[in-house]
From TrEMBL:
InterPro entries: CellSynth/LPSAsmb/PSIAsmb, TPR-like_helical_dom_sf, TPR_rpt. The keyword Nucleotide-binding does not apply. This is TPR repeat-containing protein. Keywords: Repeat, TPR repeat. TPR repeats lie at residues 136-169. Coiled coil: none annotated. PROSITE patterns: PROKAR_LIPOPROTEIN, TPR. It holds the Pfam family TPR_19.
Length: 325
């Protein structure tokens, strides 16, 4: 009798219970597979193989649409291709699935900021800071949000907090120096950049890209404002060498050449700036047609004669160098 009851109880268990158990097991295997594919995609992404990375992240999402790492990876792939809104949508999903992982939130805030959604960026940053106040990248993002709101003092406070947590932080050091430049605090600018290490080991991947030659350009501007012209020239030349696509350092060198009675050199730098960025060159106030239409040495800016002076530009532009093309 007791055996019969046991058999009856066993056979009366709904078959759906077993199916649910199998389903749960299947989902677990899917999750493992999605994580494995996401790791492979992340590795490919770090190696710069974006096509392979996107394929792997797509496969991961096909296996499991609830894997936050796969959504994060797909977001980065789409962002790299310029598909901003799709990238943001995937990262928003990653934040949701991870229950507010600060790393996902920091990246989402950065994306919001880069497309001009400043308030949403600040909101993501605030929520993330509530969870982790010891991560320098969050304070860097908060500083950038304050810059976007034109709250420079608040931005400086955030950048200083970031540097207290991570002293070797080139992105934040440059952002801090930029504010000092705007505030005409050139000694502080130079002191900040004196501690800058530009080696790749301390350049992170959670912030905006650092423009090549930016530190030398800022140093050159500060030196020029402080009356240290010869030193400024060397920094501007270094900036031009590091950033072949930037006209700013070349315009600075052209301006110095005019001030020191070297119109031929000014014309050479100005011609390079025009090739790189005609709009910026004209917006800087140069009468390009006049400067580039007359023979070297015959230019008299503002109708005033150029006074001769000892040359201070030690390295003239070399048109054969690829970085000047």
């Amino acid at each position: 009798m007791r055996l019969g009851l046991l058999l009856t109880c066993f056979t009366s268990i709904p078959t759906s219970t077993g199916c649910r158990g199998i389903g749960r097991f299947g989902e677990s295997r899917q999750s493992i597979a999605a994580r494995r594919l996401s790791r492979q995609g992340t590795k490919a992404m770090r190696q710069g193989d974006w096509t392979v990375a996107e394929t792997l992240f797509t496969e991961a999402l096909d296996v499991s649409n609830v894997n936050d790492a796969a959504h994060r990876g797909m977001s980065e792939s789409l962002w790299q291709k310029g598909h901003r809104e799709e990238a943001i949508a995937h990262l928003e999903k990653a934040v949701q699935l991870s229950a507010g992982d600060p790393k996902h939130m920091q990246r989402l805030g950065r994306m919001y900021l880069e497309v001009g959604r400043v308030d949403e960026a600040a909101r993501q940053c605030q929520i993330a800071l509530d969870s982790d106040r010891e991560w320098a990248a969050l304070w860097a993002l908060w500083g950038d949000c304050q810059v976007a709101r034109n709250e420079k003092d608040e931005a400086l406070s955030a950048y200083h907090r970031a540097l207290s947590l991570q002293p070797d932080y080139p992105y934040v050091q440059l952002r801090t120096a930029e504010i000092y430049h705007q505030q005409k605090r050139y000694d502080r600018l130079l002191a900040t950049l004196d501690r800058l290490r530009e080696d790749t080991e301390v350049v992170g991947d959670v912030d905006e890209a650092i423009r090549p030659g930016a530190a030398d350009l800022l140093r050159g501007i500060a030196m020029r404002e402080l009356g240290r012209t010869e030193e400024s020239v060397q920094y501007f030349i270094a900036s031009a060498q590091k950033n072949p696509e930037d006209a700013t350092s070349r315009l600075q060198l052209a301006s110095i050449a005019v001030e020191t009675g070297q119109p031929e050199i000014a014309q050479t730098w100005l011609a390079q700036a025009m090739r790189l960025d005609p709009s910026a060159t004209r917006n800087a106030g140069w009468n390009v047609e006049t400067w580039l239409a007359v023979p070297p040495g015959m230019v008299q800016p503002d109708n005033l004669p150029i006074q001769s002076s000892p040359p201070i530009i030690a390295a003239q532009p070399d048109a054969s160098r690829s970085w000047l093309q």
